[in-house]
């Protein structure tokens, strides 16, 4: 009976959490600009309610009395025990203050980004950093503060393990970049692409990759994201008149996240197992949808035809040229627009800087200079303005410290999954060339997505690949990138 009582309580908490998430979706899509201060109060109030439920003493009693009878029940209890242990370390007032300040910070960041004014945003970011340091110290309980923050997004992961991953990735990525950039690159797209037609094709791409619009919707936002789980999973995208790829590949990326949530076993709805197990695994889905599938030679051949239908002659002669244009290496500033070869270098920069911010080795007042210096050292040129540099991402303004590294971890996981997918699915390129992703997305649904939080992060990847956890390394990703780009 104690297990049933615990799960009934948790389901109600999960439902309230979904409502809180919907407040965030609304804020980034359709909320009136003048509602920001009130929305911050609403976020703070919801955070207090959720914190109170998450630290309810009855949870400890139910956990002590509950005896799991199935592997699924054992996994549910594992998640609940972990969440309870973390929640009880953070004071309720601190949780509410973080929710309120980060909600306000998001609006201040958006205005500062438009104005390229980091100095104007710095005081707000300093508040966020101070609060997150306090939270990290509470969670760490004498241990490593940054490791405690990572655990929010990738349970069991450490900064040391991630540093080793970046150290293993960096030499190969830099060597490949230098090799490819030494050759002539195809020109980018030119001209103007109608927004309505971009969004129409974006919606088609979402459905081609399996997104169920009867349980979701697509809106516009400054920074694309996916929100929700189960029967209400929403995504956003963005448009630029001179760059339809920004729209199309943002959509495919977010669809990878959304399909993960939509395809979790319905039996886990509104329980701890009813969401993606970690952000690294989540990113493995968005990145494999976007890159290994969406930017493949086979699929871009089909997309070329779709773009000709939507925009007429848009200045690209044929499918082979289009494939090269889609995958061209570029000297841009924006992480979300970076090519596959350089993307992880963008993430490594953020990983190192936020560790310094959280440790106190770097002050917010010095962050823009530190960013620009590091960017120039890594890429050979400096950001021309703040919106192309330190203000480009929403993650730090909303307090997501410890999140960035999961993007690269997701790339590593995606490399392993892609290798296994190619091994298991014959004729994949023929299907992709016809705009048919069902074999690939079906394989991911069966082997990764349906499990939700049943397994631990590396465990679900290893099971899908048929390997041990020790064999989940960066090697398949580097091999894929070298095969694709060296030629």
TrEMBL record:
Domain of life (superkingdom): Bacteria
GO biological process: proteolysis
Short name of one Pfam family: Peptidase_M32
Gene Ontology MF terms: metal ion binding; metallocarboxypeptidase activity
Sequence positions that bind Zn(2+): 253, 257, 283
Cofactor, how bound (note): Binds 1 zinc ion per subunit.
Cofactor: Zn(2+)
PROSITE patterns recorded: PEPTIDASE_M32
Family annotation (InterPro entries): Peptidase_M32_Taq
Keyword annotations of the record: Carboxypeptidase, Hydrolase, Metal-binding, Metalloprotease, Protease, Zinc
EC number(s) reported in the record: 3.4.17.19
Catalytic activity: Release of a C-terminal amino acid with broad specificity, except for -Pro
Active-site positions on this chain: 254
PANTHER family named among the record's database cross-references: CARBOXYPEPTIDASE 1, METAL-DEPENDENT CARBOXYPEPTIDASE
Biological role stated in the UniProt entry: Broad specificity carboxypetidase that releases amino acids sequentially from the C-terminus, including neutral, aromatic, polar and basic residues.
Family to which the UniProt record says this protein belongs: Belongs to the peptidase M32 family.
Name of the molecule in the record: Metal-dependent carboxypeptidase
Organism: Nereida ignava
């Amino acid at each position: 009976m104690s297990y049933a009582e615990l799960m009934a309580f948790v389901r109600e908490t999960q439902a309230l959490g979904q409502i809180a998430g919907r407040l965030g979706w609304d804020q980034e899509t359709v909320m009136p600009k003048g509602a920001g201060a009130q929305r911050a109060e609403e976020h703070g109030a919801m955070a207090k309610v959720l914190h109170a439920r998450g630290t309810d003493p009855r949870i400890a009693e139910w956990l002590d009395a509950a005896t799991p009878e199935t592997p699924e029940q054992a996994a549910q209890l594992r998640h609940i025990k972990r969440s309870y242990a973390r929640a009880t370390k953070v004071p309720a007032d601190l949780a509410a203050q973080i929710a309120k300040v980060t909600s306000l910070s998001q609006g201040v960041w958006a205005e500062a980004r438009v104005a390229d004014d980091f100095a104007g945003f710095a005081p707000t970011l300093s508040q966020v950093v101070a609060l997150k340091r306090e939270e990290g110290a509470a969670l760490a309980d004498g241990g490593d503060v940054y490791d405690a923050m990572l655990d929010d997004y990738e349970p069991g992961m450490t900064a040391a393990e991630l540093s080793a991953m970046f150290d293993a990735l960096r030499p190969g990525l830099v060597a490949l970049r230098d090799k490819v950039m030494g050759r002539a690159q195809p020109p980018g797209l030119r001209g103007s692409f109608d927004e309505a037609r971009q969004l129409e094709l974006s919606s088609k791409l979402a459905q081609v990759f399996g997104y169920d619009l009867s349980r979701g919707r697509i809106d516009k936002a400054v920074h694309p994201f996916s929100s929700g789980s189960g029967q209400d999973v929403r995504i956003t995208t963005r448009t630029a008149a001179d760059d339809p790829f920004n729209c199309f590949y943002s959509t495919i990326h977010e669809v990878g996240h959304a399909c993960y949530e939509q395809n979790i076993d319905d039996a886990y709805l509104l329980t701890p197992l009813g969401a993606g197990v970690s952000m690294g695994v989540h990113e493995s889905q968005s990145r494999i949808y976007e890159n290994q599938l969406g930017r493949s030679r086979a699929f871009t051949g089909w997309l070329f035809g779709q773009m000709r239908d939507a925009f007429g002659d848009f200045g690209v002669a044929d499918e082979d040229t289009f494939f090269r244009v889609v995958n061209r290496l570029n000297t841009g500033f924006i992480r979300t627009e970076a090519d596959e070869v350089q993307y992880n270098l963008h993430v490594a920069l953020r990983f190192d800087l936020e560790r310094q911010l959280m440790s106190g080795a770097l002050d917010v007042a010095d962050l823009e200079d530190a960013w620009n210096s590091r960017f120039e050292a890594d890429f050979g040129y400096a950001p021309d303005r703040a919106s192309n540099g330190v203000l480009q991402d929403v993650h730090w303004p909303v307090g997501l410290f410890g999140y960035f590294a999961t993007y690269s971890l997701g790339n590593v996981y995606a490399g392993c999954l892609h290798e296994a997918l190619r091994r298991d699915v014959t004729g994949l390129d023929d299907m992709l060339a016809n705009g048919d992703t069902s074999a690939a997305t079906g394989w991911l649904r069966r082997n990764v997505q349906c499990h939700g939080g049943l397994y631990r992060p590396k465990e679900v990847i290893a099971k899908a690949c048929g390997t041990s956890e020790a064999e989940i390394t960066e090697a398949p990703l580097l091999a894929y990138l070298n095969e694709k780009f060296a030629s």
